[in-house]
Sequence to fold (450 residues):
Amino acid sequence: MLAGWSPDSWQGLAIAQQPTYDDPVLLASVLEQLRKLPPLVTSWEVDHLRSELAAAQQGKAWLLQGGDCAEMFEGCQSEPIASKLKVLLQMSLAIVFGARCRIIRLGRMAGQYAKPRSSDTETRDGVTLPCYRGDLINDNEFTPASRKPDPVRLLRGYERSALTMNFIRGLSEGGFADLHHPENWDLVFVNQVSGEVAQRYQRLLQSLGDSIRFMETIAGSDPKELRRVDFFTSHEALHLAYESALTRPSVRGTGYYNLSTHLPWIGDRTRDLKGAHIEYFRGIRNPIAVKVGPSMGLDQLVEMVNMLNPTNEPGRLTLIHRMGRSKISSSLPPMIERLRELNKRVLWICDPMHGNTVSTQHGRKTRRFDDICEELKIAFEIHAACDSRLGGAHLELTGENVTECTGGAAGLTEFDLGTAYQTQLDPRLNYEQALEVAFEIAEHLRNGWK
Ligand code: PEP
Ligand code: CO
Fold:
């Protein structure tokens, strides 16, 4: 274990984005219960993901991370969970054809329940209440009772994470994930989706089926790898009291792991070098990620990398750049170059969502499909020009037929957003837009932006 570190050594340091509970006794009792509950993932799975991410750093795998901006307790239902899995599986198939390497599938799922906010309060019609911080903390309904942070929600969040994880495990191990039956991943409404993208996917399935039959004929067997998939989970580890209650030493004596998820990440707003989040993250054995926005200074970046990965361990640290289409060209290259000069091993992935959020005339948050694709394209080009490699993408998406981002093959406009605008927080790619982004990524990878 690292000198001076414990799962609670962050306590007492400056900490951003935490709720204020007015019942510390109840909070303490909830945390005590959480400390005794079984973990949601195992240290072996976590180590396996770290080795996969190390492979991605060497160009042998590509990381696809995606899911809701925020999961909602109400969304813990079979249909939305299965749909999200289906989209991610379909996307990984589309990408694999371009990447010609393994795809690491990482859901923003089974624990993505706490959100950083730009203000601690929200005012409507002269009434000011605490802001909504995600279902792990309070409820979005604008009443004093709903907005009051409630420690019991930490238990409800843990339980829903466990239910989601259980379902994901069942689906990824069993017949559902069998590559011989990709029709299992069809979405219920898929026939309503406009032709172009769906047809492209159908053509891909056709050639996939041919390849599988060819391979099995040659090999004379059917490899068991085709009948299951690895699926990992991730979330922003924002609420440190919750995260540290689920941090346990491994039975093998390999250190402390956050066993609420495979890969926890630090958000762009909580990566203060002297703050509690960096202190907590430096001591856990999980592979970890940090969101890197344009406000990150170069010296600050180097210091952060040294703090979080002092031994330059492969697979340990993923940097998720989220610059925005207009800033990526000036902000990203110096960062890549500085870390490369110092031989720092990191996996760079691109989040083309969070720097591209805009408001419509009517005050709705949206993102333009073209901005998302353009930031991704520029990211591929910059990495290639800097003798680096873009190793993955981080996307906010859903398997439902929502209208939250504009553009894409169906040509959604601002006026269409009202049709099915469901997000309580950031706008997500819908099924068709997500698949289209995957085809774009496959195209860049095929063109050798590696
Ligand atoms: C998010 O991923 O939902 C988020 C809040 O991102 P960021 O920390 O990059 O702003
Ligand atoms: Co978001």
Q: What stands out?
A: The CA atoms of residues 182 and 205 lie 8 Å apart. The first strand starts at residue 61 and ends at 67. The chain has a mean pLDDT of 94.
